[in-house]
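User: For my dataset I need records formatted as: sequence, then structure tokens, nothing else. Please produce one.
Assistant:
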Amino acid sequence: MCGVLVTVAAAAAPGFAAEAADAEVIAIRGATVMTAGPAGTLENATVIVRAGKIAAVGLDVAVPDGATIVDAAGRYLLPGIIDTHSHMGVYPWPGSKSNADGNEMTSPITPEVRAEDSVYLQDPAFARARAGGVTTVMILPGSGNLIGGEGVTLKLRPVETLAGLKFAGAPRNMKMASGENPKRVYGGRNQAPSTRMGSAAFLRRVFTEAREYGAKWTRHREKTARATEDGKDLPDPPDVDLRKQALLDMLEGRVQVHLHGYTVSDYTSYLRVFDEFGIRPRAFHHALEAYKMRDELARRGIGVSTWADWWGFKVEAYDGIPHNAGLCAAAGVRVALHSDSAEGIQRLFVEAAKCVRFGMTEEDAIKALTINPAWQIGVHERVGSIEVGKDADLALFSKHPFDITTRVDGTWIDGVRVFTREGR
């Protein structure tokens, strides 16, 4: 985002929201409010923010005495943009081997690792994302492994600690990958998996082992309960295996599953494995051929995180079309537009405009930036729409967000203004 002045609230975790937001009531007045919620789009509306939450939104909202007024006449107010697929922090700027920490490619499955343990807190991409109206991101491990590890959901607060960035209460999300990436990495080392059938077989084996691991602990708990009742010595527990425990958490639904891939063949192959083990994936990422199976995705309730028009950069991406997002949304799929890029994240609203050009409705395009990615991450009850009681994560645009000349004038997180364009 060139030619901007980034200003942030001088606040530090953990008191970021409480100290700054409680100090004032904010009234954003006169904007066209695109709520991404049941109220739809409201022209010349007012949004009241109190204690970091949306306190009121509507056409005839009284402004409380003493409120800080933001004159937004002629401008557009949206929920803060949410990115489901970011590698900021784990592949930070400037890029180098010394801080490239997004792929633990020492085993085809590493579900026990967590992206949060790799996040570089001073990544300048965070500030640039705020300048693009982005307030929440899910940072994921890379796609070199069949199971790459847990992602972390962050609010892009200008703070100095991971605790201050983490989205409190966000569910766990696991990154998986299908197709060319893992078979290239490990096939190149002459080890499994070197083929797609090898990938599926590898998953079946490790999920079976995890199921057996869970059965051992179930038997142990039963024996412990009986011994306690009978007053006997307690049995020794099984050995703890963090990798198998993470896999068991996937099998038992304690962590949401997100799958990288491109083609119908790869997705249906993994769906066969998922069905065998009772796994219900939350979303398919990249998903350039999702339009070919959009009805099946809608039936299963699987979301799609995709780009507007990336295609052709490898064989798996040859059938990508710019109509993909719109076709999937029309079929009832929860579509999100992701970045997978520290540069693209600054202009996700431009990506949404491209989707409108190729048939997506304006309403669906707004939802693809806001409430749909919130649902995919699992934080939709807190963010993603401008509704009373939700977090005051907001982005103010100078013009319609799909106008190619629009700019983000202001970004708020938990009611705290974290970005202001110079003079706005």
